[in-house]
Specification:
The complex is a heteropentamer. Chain A is built from eleven helices and ten strands. Chain A is α/β, with parallel strands linked by helices. By secondary structure, chain B is α+β, with helices and mostly antiparallel strands. A six-stranded mixed β-sheet of chain B has the order 14-18-13-17-15-16. Chain B has a four-stranded mixed β-sheet with strand order 1-10-9-8, with helices on one face. In chain B, strands 4-5-7-6 form a four-stranded antiparallel β-sheet, with helices on one face. Classes of the chains: A alpha/beta, B alpha+beta, C mainly alpha, D mainly alpha, E alpha/beta. Bound molecules: adenosine-5'-triphosphate (2 copies) and magnesium ion (2 copies).
Chain lengths: ~300, ~575, ~325, ~270, ~325
C-alpha cells in the first residue's frame, strides 16, 4: 500500500545549518506516527516541509505516491493539513470562529456548510455557541479545537500536528489527544504528530520515529521503540523522561556543526572509537552500528 | 567708555563684502559707509561733494571732469587719489566679473582717466546727464583703494574682502563682520563730511521685524530703519521711542500685461488679450479705491500713488492735474466697459467681444509680501464690482519674475524703489528693454513700448540742465500714467524707530507740513546720530548688571535642582522600595 | 563557543557595516538626483530676481546668465553638479557669489550648536521625564509630564518662538536674537550661551515631547519584564531597578527613533532660526529657495540628506552597540 | 477613557463649527471690501475676539479657517496613509527583491529634507492648499510606510499567517484578510497623529510663505498676523486664537489617537 | 523556617490565591503542582512581596518568625535574595538581556555583602563552575547561552548569597526533556549538599515527583491536596490530582496505551468562581453538595490532606 505521506531523502538547510539532513519517513493510511526528539533537532522543519511551507533543499515529498508539485500547492494542501503548537497564535485575533473555520473551504471554493459539522466533530458542541466568538474568548483547549476544526473542514487525508498539546494545560491535553485518536478511528485520517514528549507517543501513536540532529535515528512501532529502544539516544530520552538514569551529558547539538561519523557519538555513553568515523544508515529501523548491543530492554522500564 | 550705535541691518543682509559682486541691500549699505564715492547726496537727494568737490560737463557733452579733494587718506594711511577712482571705474567697465553688480552704470563710459591725483576725467560714448549719480553712496559705485584691490583682480570672483579692518574711507571703518549676524564699525573721527557722533557702529541682522522691535524695546538695538505700519503705530505710542516717517522712495502698484512681445514685435506668452485694450486698463484704474488701500493696508502711513517716480525725490516727482486723475469711480468704469461692448455674462463677469473670453485675469502676487496679500484681496472685491474676475496666484519672487519674462501673466503686483537718479527706472519702460526673440536680454518692466516715450527718454539722458530734465521726466510720467500699464497705488512712507534714551539726531532734514522727514539718503542718519547727553549712555541694563542677574538666576536654578534632588533622595530612601 | 562566535560576530559586523555603508552611499546619490531634478523643475528666473531693484544692462544680464551657467543644457548642468559633488565641491552660489562650501561651512557651526544643544537637552530631558512617568504610569507626575509634553508638541514652533521671544527678551538678560552680542570685542562663551537660551528653549519645548513619548512607552513595555522581577527579588531598590535594569533596556527602542529624529532636525530648524535670527543653515536654505539659488540649494540639500542618512547609519550602529543580542549577529 | 472623550469632543466641536460655518458666515464677513469693522481692534461687542487689519472678525476667521486647515490635514493624511500603508504592506509581505526595493525607495524619501522639498514642490505646482497637501504627503508617507512594514513583519511572523497559507491562502488573501486587519488599528492610530502633524506642517509652510496668503487658514492667519506686526502691536487677540485653535485640534487628534491606541492594545483586547 | 498562614491574594475582584497555608523547614523540599493560572506563581511571589501593586495580599508569611508581609521595605530588601532567593520561570526573560551574566550574578553579592568587586567576581565564577557553566563565560550576555545554560545561570544566581530558602518557579518548563533532567539533578544535588529549603513549582507532577519530598496540588487558588510526593502520585485522593497524574502516562503502562485521559471542561476562570468546590464543574463524581458546600483541606491519611467531600465521606479513591 502506498503511504499517504512520504518523505524521501529530505534535506532542509538554513544557510549552512542542515536542520533536516536526509530524512525518510512515511505515514500510512489510517496511521498515527509520532515524531519525537529533543528541541532543535529539526522536527518542526520537517513538519513544515511536509505541508509545503518550507522547500526542502534536497529530497522529495510524496502524497499517495505522487511527488509534491510546488506549483500546485493549494490542491495538495486540501489533503495535507497542519496544526500548530500554539492555538492562540494560530488563530487570527480579528477573525471569528466561523471565519476561521470557513476560511479553508472558502479558499478552496468548497460548497455547503462545513463549518458546523467540523466544529461538532472537533468537539465544540453545540457549534452555534462558538460561531460568533473571537479567539480570546475561548480557552486554550477550545482554541486548539477550532484550529483542528479548520483543518477538518477541508477533509484532509493527513494531518501534520506540530506539538499540538505542548502549550495546553495538562488536564486539557488528554482531551485533545483523544480527539486526534478519535478522528483516526472515525474518519480513517492519518496523522503525523510531532512532539518532544514520549508519553504522547505512548498515548496515541501507532509508530514512533525518533529524530536526532536532522536525522531519524530510530523508527518502529510504539511498543518496539519505547519498550525496547535500541538506539542509545532513544534510551537516553526514555531514561530522562522517567528521571531514573543519568541524563545525557553535553549541550544540545548544533545543526550548523554536525559532528563527523555518527552524529550522536559525542554525547553517546557507549560510543567506541569507530563511531567517530562511521555515519550509520538506518538499518532495520535504527541508525546505530552498535544497535545490536543495546537490544535488551531497559530494565528500569517495567 | 566708548559709545556704540546699534542698528538693525537693512533688508536681506549681506551677500558678499566684495563691492563688485554684491546685490543685497545690507551689503550696499555697508559699502556706502566704508567706501567713498565721487559724490554724496545731500539731505534732499541732490548730488553733493564727497571725494569730488566740483564736477563739470565739457562742451562736447561727452567729457566730465571731477575735481577731487587733496589730503584724504585710506584707513591704512595711503592717500586717496583720482587714480583710485579711475582704476575702480575702469575695472568695472572693462572686466566682466567686476561689472557683475554695477556694469550698467558705466556702460556708456568710453574711458576714465586720472591725469593728476586730483583730477578725474570721464569720457562718455554718448552724452549723459547723470554722471554725478554714478558714484554715490549705496546706490552708486563705491571707490575702492587700488593698492589693495589690484592684486586680487585675477581672482576677483572668489575674493571675499574679509581682511578686517577693511581698508577704505568713509564715516566708518568696517572692523568685523559675521555673515547673518552683524557688522561692526569704528568711527572715522576725521571724516571729511563731519565726525560721527558715536565711536562705534554695529549693524545687527534680524530676520523677523518683530524680533528686531523686541530687541529695540529691550535695549539690544538703538535704531530700526524700516518697521511696518502696524508696528509703527504701536511704537509711536511709546514715549521712550522716537518714531518718524520719511517720504517714501518707492511705490507699490500693479502692472497690466499690455500684450507681451519681443523687440521684433512677436507676441509671446499667455497674457489676456483684453488687457491690451486701453479702455479695460482705464476701467480697472477707475475701479481701484486707492485711498482705502492707503488707510487700510498701510494705516495711512503713505501717500496716494500717482506718478512713476516716488516723492522722496522731489526733483522728479509728478502729480496729474485734477482733470487727468483717475479717481475711484466704479460707475464710470462700468460705463466705459459697457460702452466698449464688454457685456456681463450670466455669472456677472464681462466677456471680451473680440476673443469671446471672459474678463477673468490672473493676479500674481509676491507670496512673501504681506502687503501684496492684503492689497490683492481688496482688488478682487473692487474689480468684481465692475464685472472683472481676478484669481490670485501667490508666487515666489523668482517664479513671478520667470512668468514676467515669459509673458505668462495678466496682472502682477509690482513695486520699485529707486535712488535719486531716475534713469534706470525710466529706462525699463523703453522698447529697447523688450526681450530678444530668443527670450533673453529683456529687463522690461511691463512690456510697455511707446515711440514717443522712447524719444523723451533719449532727450532727458542728454539734458544737462536739471530743471529742463525734470520737465521731460514729468512728461514721461504723464505718458505712463495715461497708458495705465503701471498703476501706482501708493508710496509707503519709510518708518523708522529709535530709542530716545540712547540716541538722538538719527533723522536729518526738516519735516514737511505733514511731519514727514525727507528720505534719509546715504550715511547721514548714522553720521549725525549721537549719544543724547555728554554722560556716556551705556546700554540700558548693560551687560554688567545683566550678568549679575544672570548669575543670580543660574544660582537659583542650581539650588532648586539640588534641593529637589536631595529631597527626592530622602524620600526614595524611605518607604516604598 | 564564545570565542568562535565572537570571531564570526566581528566578521558579520564588518559585513553588515559595509552593506549599510553601501546602501547609505546609494541613498545619498539617489537623493541628490531627486533633489537636482526637483530643484531644476522650479520655475525661476534667478538673474532677474538677483538684479531686481538694481540698474542692470542687457550685457550684464547676459554675462550673469553665462556666469551662472544658466544657458547650459540641463544634462550638462547635472554632469557638472555630479562632478563637483564627487570632488567634494559644492559649486558657486548665485546670490552670495561665493563658494557654496564656504557658505555652508560658515552656517553649519551655528546650526550644529543650536541643534546639538537642543537635541542634547531635549533628549536628556525627554528620556528622563519619559522614564519617570512611564515607570509610574498614571501617577500625577506622569499625567503632568504627558499632558505638558503633548500640549507643547501641538504648538506650532514659530508661534511658540515668537511668544517666548516677546515674553522673555529681557533687557540685559536674554537677547531677542542673534548668536552673540556684536558690541563685545570678542566672542564670549557666556554671551553665546545667553543668546542660545531662547531658541534652544523653543526647540526643546517642541521636540522633547517626542522623546518623552517614546521613552515612556518603552518603559511601560519593559515594566512587566521578568528580569525586573529578578532585580527586585535581589533586593534592589525601586530606583535602582529602574536605573540599572529598566532604563538600559527601554533605551533600545528609543535610540533608533531618536537618531532618526535628529537627522531631520537640521532641516526642521528654519522657523526657529528665522524667529531668532540665528545665523544657521536653515535660514540659508530658505534664502536659497527664494531665488532659487540652485548650487546653494544643492549644497544645503546635501547636508540635510547626509545628516539624515548618517544619523540612520548611526542609529543602526548605536542599536547594535547597545543591544548585545544584535551586536553578535 | 477621559482623554478619548476630550479628544473626540474637541474634534467633533470643530468639525461641526467648520461644516456649518457657511450658514452663519457670509461674504460680508470675509470679504475685505465689504467688512465694516474697526481695524485691528481688541475684543469689543460684536467682535468677541477682536478684528484683523482689514476689520474682519477674528472669531469668524478662526472658524472659517478650520475648514481649510482641517481639510488640508485630513486630505494630506489620507494620501499619506494610503501611500504609506500600501508601500509598507507590500514591503513587509514581499521580503524578497520587491520588499528590499520598496524599503530603499522609502529610505531615499526619508533622507529628503521636507521643508526644501515642500518649497520646491509648491514652486512647481503653484502655491496654495493643493501643493501644501501634496508636499506634506510626499514627505510624511515614509514614516507610515516604515511603521506599517514593521508591523506587517510582526504580523507575518505570527503563526496564523502560516495556518492561512496551509489552508490555501495566496499572497493577496494573506495581505488583505490577515495582515491588513491586524495592521489597521495601528494605521488608524498613526493617522490621527499624522493629521496632527499635517495641520502643524500646514501652518508652518504657510507661515514660511508657501500657502495662499489670501485664503483663510490658521496658518495664513498667523502669517498675516506676524508679517503685519501684530506681535509688536500686542494684538494678542489676533495672535492667540489661530495658534490656540491649532493647539487644541492637534491635541484633540493626538489624544484621540492615543486613546484609540490604548483601546486597540492587543494586551487589553486579549483580556477583554 | 517558613510558615505561611491563610495566604490570600487578589487582583481586584479576582482571587488568585485563596487561603493557602503550609510550612517548610531547612533542607525540606515542597513541590507545588497545578495547571496554568491556578495561582502557583502568585503564591510564590507573594512570599517576598514581589507582586505588582494591583495585588492585594492578606495572611501571614513568617520567615524565621518575622512576618514578611508587614515588614518594612528596607528589612524586606535585606531578606530578599540574601535569605530567600527565587529561580524564575523562563530564564531567558528573567535575565537582563543587556547585562553580562557575571554582572548579574555579582549584583546581589555586592548589594548584600560587604565584599570587593573582585571577590564577588570570584564567587560568581565559582558559582558558574558549580552549575556546570564555564566560568570564563561570565562576560557573555544571556542570549549567548542555551536555554539549559541560562537556567543554570539562574540557579547560580539564586545561590549567590547562600540563601536559606529558594523558591523555584517552574525552573524547567521551557526546557527540553534532556536538559530538564540535568537541571533537576543539579538542583537536587544542591539541596542535599547545602540543606537549603526549596519550594518548587511546576505543572508537571512527574517533575515534582523526582525532586520533592512533599507535594501540594493547587486548583483555582487553593491547595486541594497535599502529602508525601510518592504517595500522592501513586494514590491520589482528590479527583483533580488523579486527572493530573494520569495526564502524564507511564510509558509501558498498558492502561494508558492508546487511551489518553484528560479532564473534560475548561480550567476555571478565577474571576468567576462561585461558592462550593471549584472543581465540581469538571468533576465526574461531583454531586449537588459539591456545588454548594465549601470545601477545605481535610485529613486524608497519614500526613496527608485533601479538599474533597468524598474524602470527608470516607470514599477513598
Ligand atoms: N527559519 C530558520 N532559519 C534558520 N534556522 C532555522 C530556521 N528554522 C529553524 N532553524 C534551525 O533549525 C534547527 C531545527 O529547528 P526546528 O524548529 O525544526 O526544531 P524542532 O525540532 O522543531 O525544535 P523545537 O522542539 O524547539 O520546536 C534549529 O537549530 C533551528 O535553530
Ligand atoms: N498582575 C496580574 N493582574 C491580574 N491578574 C493576574 C496578575 N497576575 C496573575 N493574574 C491572574 O492570577 C491567576 C494566577 O496566576 P499565576 O501566575 O499565579 O498562575 P500560575 O499558576 O503561576 O500559572 P502558570 O502555570 O501559567 O505560571 C491567573 O488567573 C492570572 O490570570
Ligand atoms: Mg518545533
Ligand atoms: Mg506561573
Amino acid at each position: 500500500m502506498t503511504p499517504v505521506l512520504e518523505a524521501r531523502g529530505l534535506e532542509i538547510a538554513y544557510g549552512n545549518a542542515r536542520a533536516v539532513d536526509g530524512v525518510d519517513l512515511e505515514v500510512r493510511q489510517g496511521e498515527i506516527v509520532a515524531l519525537v526528539g529533543e528541541s532543535g533537532c529539526g522536527k518542526s522543519s520537517l513538519a513544515r516541509a511536509l505541508v509545503g511551507l518550507v522547500r526542502p533543499t534536497r529530497g522529495e515529498i510524496r502524497h499517495l505516491g505522487t511527488p509534491l508539485d510546488y506549483r500546485r500547492l493549494k490542491e495538495y494542501r486540501r489533503h495535507v493539513q497542519l496544526i500548530l503548537q500554539d492555538p492562540g497564535g494560530a488563530l487570527n485575533p480579528r477573525q471569528t470562529v466561523h471565519a476561521a473555520v470557513a476560511e479553508g473551504p472558502r479558499l478552496h471554493g468548497l460548497k455547503g456548510d462545513r463549518v458546523t459539522s467540523a466544529l461538532a466533530r472537533a468537539g465544540l458542541r453545540p457549534p452555534e455557541d462558538y460561531l460568533r466568538r473571537y479567539p480570546h474568548e475561548l480557552s486554550g483547549g477550545q482554541q486548539q479545537r477550532v484550529v483542528i476544526a479548520g483543518a477538518l473542514a477541508l477533509e484532509p487525508s493527513v494531518i501534520v500536528a506540530d506539538e499540538p498539546v505542548a502549550s495546553l494545560d495538562a488536564s486539557v491535553r488528554g482531551e485533545i489527544l483523544k480527539l486526534i485518536l478519535g478522528l483516526r478511528d472515525e474518519l480513517g485520517m492519518s496523522a503525523l504528530v510531532v512532539s518532544h514528549d514520549l508519553g504522547l507517543a505512548w498515548n496515541i501513536a501507532d509508530r514512533v520515529a525518533v529524530m536526532y540532529l536532522g536525522r531519524i535515528v530510530e523508527t518502529g512501532t510504539v511498543e518496539e521503540v519505547l519498550i525496547r529502544p535500541r538506539h542509545p539516544y532513544t534510551r537516553a530520552m526514555l531514561a530522562a523522561a522517567s528521571g531514573t538514569a543519568t541524563p545525557l551529558q553535553g549541550e544540545p547539538p548544533d545543526p550548523a556543526r554536525i559532528p563527523p561519523g555518527c552524529r550522536f557519538h559525542p554525547r553517546c555513553a557507549s560510543r567506541t572509537d569507530e563511531c567517530g568515523s562511521i555515519d550509520p544508515p538506518v538499518r532495520a529501523g535504527v541508525a546505530c552500528h552498535l544497535a545490536s548491543l543495546h537490544l535488551t530492554p531497559l530494565e528500569e522500564i517495567s | 567708555q566708548d559709545t556704540t550705535l546699534r542698528v538693525k541691518m537693512s533688508g536681506s543682509g549681506v551677500d558678499t563684502l566684495n563691492p563688485f559682486l554684491a546685490f543685497f541691500n545690507g551689503a550696499l549699505d555697508i559699502f556706502g559707509t566704508i567706501y567713498p564715492s565721487l559724490n554724496s547726496l545731500d539731505e534732499n537727494g541732490k548730488p553733493g561733494p564727497y571725494l569730488a568737490t566740483e564736477w563739470t560737463q565739457g562742451p562736447d557733452q561727452l567729457t566730465w571732469t571731477f575735481k577731487l579733494r587733496e589730503g584724504l587718506k585710506w584707513s591704512d594711511g595711503r592717500p586717496i587719489t583720482a587714480e583710485d577712482a579711475a582704476w575702480t571705474l575702469e575695472l568695472i567697465r572693462t572686466d566682466s566679473v567686476a561689472g557683475t553688480a554695477n556694469g550698467s552704470l558705466v556702460s556708456n563710459f568710453e574711458r576714465v582717466t586720472a591725469p593728476d591725483p586730483t583730477t578725474l576725467v570721464i569720457k562718455t560714448k554718448k552724452p549723459q546727464a547723470n554722471v554725478m549719480y554714478v558714484s554715490i553712496p549705496i546706490s552708486g559705485i563705491p571707490i575702492v583703494p587700488k593698492h589693495v584691490w589690484e592684486p586680487h583682480v585675477k581672482e576677483l570672483k572668489d575674493y571675499k574682502n574679509d581682511a578686517f579692518p577693511v581698508v577704505g574711507y568713509g564715516p566708518w571703518t568696517l572692523t568685523d563682520h559675521r555673515p547673518e549676524q552683524y557688522a561692526r564699525f569704528d568711527a572715522n573721527k576725521g571724516f571729511v563730511l563731519g565726525a560721527p557722533g558715536f565711536d562705534h557702529l554695529v549693524q545687527q541682522s534680524f530676520k523677523e521685524s518683530d524680533a528686531a522691535v523686541a530687541a529695540l524695546r529691550s535695549g539690544q538695538l538703538d535704531y530700526i530703519n524700516g518697521v511696518n505700519p502696524t508696528q509703527f503705530t504701536a511704537l509711536k505710542a511709546d514715549s521712550s521711542l522716537l518714531a518718524v516717517q520719511e517720504v517714501g522712495n518707492g511705490w507699490t502698484g500693479i502692472e497690466l500685461n499690455p500684450g507681451a512681445r519681443t523687440r521684433s514685435g512677436k507676441p509671446i506668452g499667455t497674457g489676456h488679450p483684453a488687457l491690451r485694450e486701453q479702455v479695460v486698463r482705464d476701467a480697472i484704474a477707475l475701479a481701484i479705491d486707492k485711498p482705502t488701500l492707503v488707510t487700510k493696508v498701510i494705516n495711512g502711513l503713505g501717500q496716494l500713488g500717482h506718478g512713476y517716480l516716488p516723492p522722496a525725490w522731489p526733483q522728479w516727482s509728478w502729480k496729474p492735474a485734477p482733470e487727468e486723475e483717475h479717481v475711484f469711480d466704479p460707475a464710470k468704469a462700468n460705463q466705459l466697459l459697457d460702452a466698449a461692448g464688454y457685456t456681463k455674462g450670466a455669472d456677472g463677469v464681462r466677456v471680451d467681444p473680440k476673443s469671446g473670453k471672459p474678463l477673468a485675469f490672473r493676479l500674481g502676487t509676491h507670496s512673501d509680501d504681506s502687503a501684496d496679500a492684503a492689497i490683492s484681496t481688496y482688488l478682487v472685491g473692487w474689480l468684481e464690482a465692475i464685472g472683472v474676475k481676478l484669481t490670485i496666484q501667490p508666487l515666489s519672487m523668482s517664479a513671478l519674475n520667470s512668468d514676467l519674462a515669459k509673458g505668462d501673466w495678466d496682472i502682477l503686483m509690482d513695486g520699485w524703489t529707486t535712488g535719486p537718479d531716475p534713469t534706470y527706472l525710466l529706462g525699463i519702460q523703453t522698447c529697447a528693454t523688450l526681450p530678444k526673440d530668443d527670450g533673453t536680454g529683456g529687463n522690461t518692466e511691463a512690456y510697455y513700448c511707446d515711440k514717443d516715450y522712447d524719444a523723451l527718454f533719449e532727450r532727458q539722458l542728454t539734458t544737462a540742465d536739471p530743471a529742463e530734465r525734470a520737465t521731460i521726466v514729468a512728461e514721461m510720467q504723464r505718458t505712463l500714467y495715461k497708458a495705465n500699464v503701471d498703476q501706482i497705488l501708493y508710496y509707503a512712507n519709510t518708518l523708522d524707530v529709535a530709542r530716545t534714551d540712547t540716541v538722538k539726531g538719527i533723522v536729518t532734514g526738516t519735516p514737511n507740513a505733514d511731519g514727514l522727514h525727507p528720505a534719509q539718503t546715504a550715511f547721514w542718519s548714522y553720521l549725525k546720530a549721537a549719544p543724547p547727553t555728554a554722560t556716556k549712555a551705556g546700554a540700558p541694563g548693560g551687560s554688567g548688571g545683566g550678568t549679575a542677574v544672570w548669575l543670580g538666576l543660574g544660582a537659583l536654578v542650581i539650588v532648586a535642582v539640588g534641593g529637589t534632588l536631595v529631597l527626592r533622595r530622602r524620600k526614595t530612601a524611605g518607604d516604598r522600595e | 563557543m564564545s570565542s568562535a562566535s565572537t570571531g564570526t560576530a566581528v566578521r558579520g559586523f564588518g559585513r553588515h557595516l559595509a552593506e549599510k555603508l553601501a546602501a547609505a552611499v546609494v541613498s545619498f546619490f539617489v537623493t541628490l538626483v531627486i533633489g537636482f531634478v526637483i530643484f531644476s523643475l522650479m520655475p525661476a528666473d534667478p538673474v532677474r530676481t538677483l538684479t531686481r531693484g538694481r540698474p542692470t544692462s542687457e550685457a550684464q544680464l547676459a554675462q550673469l546668465r553665462l556666469q551662472l551657467g544658466l544657458d547650459d543644457p540641463l544634462w550638462q548642468r547635472f554632469l557638472t553638479f555630479v562632478g563637483d559633488t564627487l570632488r567634494g565641491e559644492l559649486g558657486y552660489s548665485w546670490q552670495f557669489q561665493q563658494q557654496v562650501s564656504t557658505l555652508v561651512a560658515e552656517r553649519l557651526g551655528p546650526t550644529l550648536l543650536l541643534m546639538g544643544t537642543s537635541a542634547a537637552v531635549s533628549v536628556a530631558l525627554g528620556l528622563w521625564l519619559g522614564m519617570r512617568s512611564g515607570w509610574r504610569q498614571g501617577s500625577v507626575f506622569d499625567r503632568i509630564t504627558s499632558g505638558a509634553s503633548l500640549t507643547l508638541w501641538s504648538v506650532p514652533t514659530f508661534w511658540l518662538g515668537m511668544i517666548l521671544l516677546v515674553a522673555f527678551s529681557i533687557p540685559g538678560l536674554l537677547p531677542a536674537g542673534g548668536m552673540s552680542d556684536p558690541s563685545l570685542p570678542t566672542t564670549d562663551v557666556l554671551d553665546v550661551a545667553r543668546h542660545l537660551v531662547l531658541p534652544c528653549l523653543t526647540m526643546v519645548l517642541v521636540i522633547f515631547a517626542q522623546y518623552v513619548t517614546v521613552m515612556r512607552s518603552s518603559i511601560i513595555d519593559e515594566r512587566g519584564a521578568a528580569y525586573l522581577l529578578t532585580a527586585r527579588a535581589k533586593g534592589l531598590t525601586d530606583a535602582d531597578v529602574r536605573r540599572r535594569h529598566a532604563a538600559p533596556n527601554a533605551l533600545l527602542p528609543s535610540v533608533t527613533m531618536i537618531f532618526m529624529h535628529l537627522g531631520t532636525l537640521v532641516s526642521g530648524a528654519i522657523t526657529v532660526e528665522a524667529v531668532y535670527s540665528w545665523p544657521g543653515l536653515g535660514y540659508l536654505t530658505y534664502q536659497a529657495l527664494k531665488i532659487p539659488d540652485l548650487p546653494l540649494l544643492q549644497g544645503t540639500f546635501i547636508i540635510f540628506s547626509a545628516s539624515v542618512i548618517i544619523m540612520n547609519l548611526l542609529a543602526d550602529l548605536a542599536y547594535r552597540f547597545l543591544d548585545p543580542r544584535v551586536r553578535a549577529q | 477613557m477621559r482623554s478619548l472623550l476630550w479628544g473626540v469632543g474637541v474634534l467633533a466641536a470643530f468639525a461641526v463649527l467648520a461644516l456649518t460655518a457657511p450658514l452663519y458666515i457670509g461674504d460680508a464677513d470675509l470679504n475685505v471690501v465689504k467688512v465694516t469693522g474697526p481695524q485691528l481692534s481688541p475684543p469689543v461687542a460684536g467682535y468677541p475676539l477682536g478684528t484683523d487689519q482689514a476689520g474682519r472678525s477674528v472669531l469668524l476667521l478662526v472658524i472659517w479657517g478650520a475648514r481649510e486647515s482641517l481639510a488640508i490635514g485630513l486630505i494630506a493624511t489620507a494620501l499619506t496613509v494610503v501611500l504609506g500603508s500600501a508601500v509598507g504592506l507590500l514591503a513587509g509581505h514581499y521580503q524578497g527583491a520587491l520588499g528590499k526595493a520598496l524599503m530603499h525607495v522609502t529610505d531615499w524619501f526619508i533622507a529628503l529634507p521636507s521643508l526644501p522639498l515642500a518649497i520646491s514642490l509648491s514652486a512647481v505646482l503653484g502655491q496654495g492648499a493643493a501643493s501644501i497637501t501634496i508636499a506634506i504627503a510626499v514627505t510624511s508617507w515614509t514614516a507610515t510606510a516604515r511603521l506599517v512594514r514593521a508591523q506587517t513583519l510582526a504580523v507575518e511572523a505570527r503563526p496564523f499567517i502560516e495556518r492561512a497559507r496551509v489552508l490555501g491562502a495566496g499572497n493577496a488573501q494573506v495581505m488583505l484578510r490577515h495582515v491588513l486587519p491586524n495592521v489597521l488599528p495601528l494605521i488608524l492610530v498613526s493617522s490621527t497623529l499624522t493629521v496632527a502633524s499635517a495641520i502643524l506642517s500646514e501652518a508652518t509652510l504657510t507661515f514660511l510663505g508657501l500657502g495662499d496668503p489670501t485664503s483663510v487658514t490658521w496658518g495664513s492667519m498667523l502669517q498675516a498676523a506676524f508679517s503685519g506686526g501684530a506681535v509688536t502691536a500686542g494684538a494678542w487677540w489676533y495672535l492667540l486664537p489661530p495658534g490656540v485653535a491649532i493647539l487644541i485640534v492637534v491635541l484633540g487628534f493626538t489624544l484621540t489617537g492615543r486613546a484609540v491606541e490604548h483601546l486597540l492594545d492587543p494586551r487589553r483586547a486579549a483580556h477583554a | 523556617m517558613l510558615e505561611v498562614r491563610d495566604l490570600n491574594v487578589s487582583y481586584g475582584p479576582a482571587q488568585a490565591v485563596r487561603g493557602v497555608s503550609f510550612e517548610l523547614d531547612r533542607g525540606q523540599t515542597l513541590g507545588v503542582a497545578g495547571e496554568s493560572g491556578c495561582g502557583k506563581s502568585t503564591m510564590a511571589l507573594s512570599l517576598l512581596r514581589l507582586l505588582p501593586d494591583t495585588a492585594h495580599v492578606t495572611g501571614r508569611v513568617l520567615f524565621e518568625g518575622e512576618d514578611l508581609l508587614t515588614a518594612r521595605w528596607a528589612r524586606l530588601r535585606a531578606v530578599r535574595w540574601n535569605a530567600a532567593s527565587v529561580v524564575f520561570q523562563g530564564a531567558m526573560s528573567a535575565l537582563n538581556p543587556v547585562r553580562t551574566v557575571g554582572d548579574q550574578i555579582c549584583e546581589p553579592i555586592l548589594l548584600h555583602e560587604r565584599v570587593s568587586v573582585k571577590a564577588a567576581r570570584r564567587r560568581a565564577a565559582e558559582l558558574l563552575d558549580a552549575v556546570g557553566v564555564p566560568a570564563r563565560r561570565a562576560r557573555d550576555y544571556p542570549h549567548e547561552f542555551s536555554g539549559g545554560q541560562r537556567q543554570r545561570i539562574m540557579i547560580a544566581m539564586a545561590l549567590a548569597c547562600r540563601p536559606d530558602l529558594i523558591v523555584a518557579d517552574e525552573p524547567t518548563t521551557a526546557l527540553d526533556v534532556m536538559v530538564q533532567a540535568q537541571i533537576l539533578r543539579l538542583l537536587g544535588d544542591l539541596v542535599r549538599e547545602s540543606g537549603i529549603g526549596v519550594i518548587m513549582i511546576s505543572h508537571d507532577l512527574a517533575v515534582l515527583a523526582q525532586m520533592c519530598e512533599r507535594l501540594a496540588v493547587m486548583y483555582a487558588g487553593r491547595i486541594v491536596e497535599t502529602g508525601p510526593a510518592r504517595e500522592l502520585i501513586a494514590d491520589p485522593r482528590h479527583p483533580y490530582t488523579r486527572a493530573l497524574a494520569r495526564a502524564f502516562p507511564t510509558i509501558g503502562d498498558p492502561a494508558s496505551r492508546l487511551a489518553p485521559e484528560g479532564l473534560p471542561g475548561d480550567p476555571p476562570r478565577i474571576a468567576d468562581l462561585g461558592g462550593g468546590c471549584a472543581f465540581a464543574p469538571r468533576c465526574a463524581s461531583a454531586d449537588a453538595a459539591c456545588r454548594t458546600r465549601s470545601v477545605e483541606l481535610w485529613p486524608s491519611g497519614r500526613d496527608r490532606a485533601a479538599a474533597c467531600l468524598r474524602v470527608l465521606e470516607g470514599e477513598a479513591s
